[in-house]
Write a structure and sequence with these properties.
heterotrimer; A mainly beta (201); B alpha/beta (246); C mainly beta (85); B: Rossmann fold; 6-stranded antiparallel β-sheet; 11 strands; 33% strand; C: 85 residues; mainly beta; 3-stranded antiparallel β-sheet; 1 helix; globular
């Protein structure tokens, strides 16, 4: 039984409509930086984004080609498994639908792979139909390296560890391969509304 | 730390606030009474856990500031404006309040009474806390190991333990300050961030062991500079406190 | 430079929960580059879980995740760990 410390209230947990805040989360005005490793600094002339694996051919975009693709500005709420949520975050990015347009695959799953070695796995259908982007801008500015710049995956309907920083591509596969955290206790899928934080949740 | 490797799992203990002692305008020392405290080594830290009435919990690590002294454990805490635990510990907590503590934790960044030469303690901001525990333990033990402390702070008003450091000086311990942002009018000491030249001047001749503690950028710059000056990396022990040092 | 990077001292409490022993003085060998360091001297990053990385090559040495009741530990990045008892 933990001891209650008189007068301790913890972080101010703002009153926000609960249809915006998943269970166990609190809203923060900050944008905490969390990282599993050192910040990569890939020069843009060496950067590319590829779609590999269960595909008919390799798909590759250089930074110029990637930035020439149609992109959009969008506002979403994000939810980190460490319990903070940030509402109404504004991003600029390329929809995964745009990148997958014309890509022939029988794959049902994808693994996002990144500079520095981080990976995360998702069902392909969680990346499509307007649910995910490769984001290169945040709050009207180019995405900062500490937040995943030059580009990160953005999948706001799942816990934010799925929104892989420093993303370099997607590997499509027939089976679901647990990524960096999913192979170490974190939930394979990660739906914040069902509080799917850990294995067995 | 011979013979201390097998310790078993840590348990949470009740720690009663006995006294609060302001150190600077934003730093306070909490004197805690911890029943059953097994004792500690200078340099070790504790985890502090606070639980609110609705069950919400927050946990942080703090270096122990005091030398071993029965069931008494002192923590020196800097209030971080956007902090969650430090504002409670420095502004809300009163004598009689109880917090939870587990420890002592650590074995790597721990005072060595027989280092085989001189010791250099380099502290940046609140990184001075575990080094102060070392200086205090050294004094309590009557240790004569030649020890130099290099303390980097923004200004004279930010220097924690000022009077005590003055008293502890002598008996082979000497304290050098560098005030990086502003210096008092009659200041003759260093007035810049710790760099290679400063370290070269301050490091004792027969340096055998160095402890560096503070914010990560400070620790890494100091450690790198010492290695660049030819000091053995395996004899430089570091403890990083993260970006703000608190 | 990595402002958020900590070192093995920051993981000491968590690792003592795993090993039931003080581990920062244990000496680990990186399976990536073979470097040998005390656990207290390795790099520690705190994200969704805790990641210990080799200070020489930044290869992952250990990953630790806890939900308060279970602890998941991946030690594959450590070729060897030597503790004194």
């Amino acid at each position: 039984m933990p001891i209650i410390s008189r007068g301790f209230r913890g972080r101010r947990r703002d009153d926000v409509p609960s249809d915006r805040v998943p269970p166990g989360q609190y809203v923060t005005p900050d944008f905490p930086v969390l990282s599993a490793g050192p910040t990569p600094h890939t020069p843009l002339d060496l950067w590319d984004f590829t779609i590999v694996g269960e595909v008919d051919e390799l798909y590759r975009w250089t930074w110029e080609e990637f930035r020439a693709l149609p992109s959009e500005t969008f506002t979403v709420d994000i939810h980190c498994v460490t319990k903070w949520s940030k509402l109404d975050t504004v991003w600029e990015g390329v929809s995964i639908d745009t990148l997958l347009d014309g890509v022939e695959t029988s794959a049902e799953y994808a693994v996002a792979f990144c500079d520095g070695g981080y990976t995360t796995n998702l069902p392909l259908e969680d990346l499509t139909d307007g649910k995910a982007w490769i984001a290169f801008g945040y709050d009207g500015m180019p995405l900062e390296p500490e937040h995943g710049g030059p580009a990160r995956l953005l999948v706001p309907h799942l816990y934010f560890w799925k929104s892989a920083k420093w993303v370099r591509g997607l590997r499509l596969a027939a089976t679901d391969e647990p990524g960096f955290w999913e192979s170490n206790g974190y939930h394979l899928y990660g739906d914040p509304w069902k509080e799917q934080r850990y294995w067995g949740d | 730390m011979e013979g201390t490797a097998v310790l078993g799992r840590l348990i949470w203990r009740a720690a009663e606030v006995a006294e609060l002692r302001p150190e600077t305008s934003s730093v306070k020392t909490l004197v805690l009474e911890v029943a059953g405290w097994p004792g500690h080594h200078a340099g070790q830290h504790v985890d502090v856990r606070l639980t609110a009435e609705d069950g919400y919990q927050a946990q942080r690590s703090y270096s122990i500031a005091s030398a071993a002294n029965g069931s008494r454990v002192e923590l020196t805490v800097e209030r971080l404006d956007d902090g969650e635990v430090s504002p409670y510990l420095t502004e809300e907590a009163r004598p009689g309040d109880v917090i939870e503590l587990r420890g002592p934790i650590g074995g790597f960044f721990v005072w060595d009474p027989a280092p085989g030469g001189a010791v250099l303690l380099v502290g940046g901001g609140s990184g001075i806390v575990p080094l102060m525990a070392m200086a205090r333990q050294r004094a309590v033990d009557g240790d004569r190991v030649p020890t130099r402390m290099l303390y980097s702070a923004r200004a004279w008003d930010d220097v924690i333990y000022r009077d005590e450091l003055e008293r502890l000086g002598g008996d082979g311990l000497d304290v050098v300050y560098t005030l990086t942002r502003e210096q008092p009018p009659d200041w003759t000491g260093y007035g810049r961030r710790v760099d290679s030249d400063l370290l070269d001047e301050v490091a004792p001749a027969d340096l055998a062991l160095t402890f560096v503690c503070g914010p990560t950028p400070f620790v890494e710059a100091v450690a790198e500079a010492l290695v660049g000056l030819g000091h053995d990396p395996s004899r430089i022990k570091t403890e990083r406190f993260g970006p703000t040092g608190g | 430079m990595e402002k958020l990077r900590l070192d093995g001292n920051a993981a000491a409490g968590l690792l003592q929960e795993v090993f039931a022993a003080e581990v920062t003085t244990a000496v680990g060998t990186c399976d990536g580059c073979g470097a040998v360091e005390a656990v207290g001297a390795v790099h520690v990053y705190s994200a969704a879980g805790t990641v210990l990385r080799c200070p020489h090559c930044e290869a992952v040495l250990m990953k630790v995740v806890t939900d308060g009741e279970r602890i998941w530990v991946d030690l594959r990045g450590l070729r060897m760990l030597e503790l004194r008892v």
